[in-house]
Amino acid sequence: FRFGQTVGPLTLPAATYDIELRTPDGATTLFEQDVAVPGSGNFSVVASFSAEGSPKLNVFANDTKRAPFGQAKLALPHAAAAPAVDVDAGLFPISRFFPKLVKEVVSGAVNGQAATLTLPSFLRYTADVRVADTSTVGLKANDIRISSKVLTNVYVVGSAAGGTLQVISNTIPVAGR
């Protein structure tokens, strides 16, 4: 698969796996890391960069417990070569026109950390990513749709210094639906 794509879900037995990132032709290994998969739980592995720009694999635990009735889960994992960030979420498109209605939901998230929010389901949201404690928006994600049947992951990836920040999203079924 290529940058920006997601693969899975995969069901794997508990073990430690050697994961390699290779060039598109498969001839050269760019990066290699062991990842321990526990016997229970649901996890996402994201090939990304550390805050300093070194390649790494981030492992995020997915909260796949059922949300309360009328609610859905949105996870915002930080997997970018960027300093700590604040994330503001709001209803789309309302928050584009009335930014003061945006609700800050994550403060000071660092690379490798994720915040999971429980929000009213079947609505559309925005997420503005800012360098922590500033008003400078480095990345805007618009029209994020969430549903009570899935956990929606919106990963922040790329490089702040390189101007390549972007979001990659996927959904994972939640329990009991």
Structural overview:
This protein has 177 residues and is mainly beta. It contains one helix and twelve strands; from the N terminus they run ββββββαββββββ. It has a four-stranded mixed beta sheet with strand order 8-5-11-12, with no helix packed on it. A four-stranded antiparallel beta sheet has the order 7-6-9-10.
Distance linking N and C termini: 29 Å
Q: What radius of gyration results from the CA coordinates?
A: 17 Å
Oligomer state of the chains in this structure: single chain
In terms of DSSP E residues, the strand content is: over 45%
Largest sheet data: 4 strands, mixed
Across the major sheet, the strand order is: 8-5-11-12
Helix/strand order: EEEEEEHEEEEEE
Average pLDDT confidence is 85
Q: What structural class do the secondary elements suggest?
A: mainly beta
Low-pLDDT ranges:
none
The rough form would be described as: globular
Q: Give helix % range.
A: under 10%
Number of E-type strands: 12
Q: DSSP helix count?
A: 1
Secondary structure: elements and pairs:
Layout: E1 15-22, E2 29-37, E3 43-49, E4 55-61, E5 71-77, E6 85-91, H1 94-97, E7 103-109, E8 114-120, E9 124-131, E10 137-145, E11 150-157, E12 166-173
Parallel strand pairs: 5-11
Antiparallel strand pairs: 1-2, 3-4, 5-8, 6-7, 6-9, 9-10, 11-12
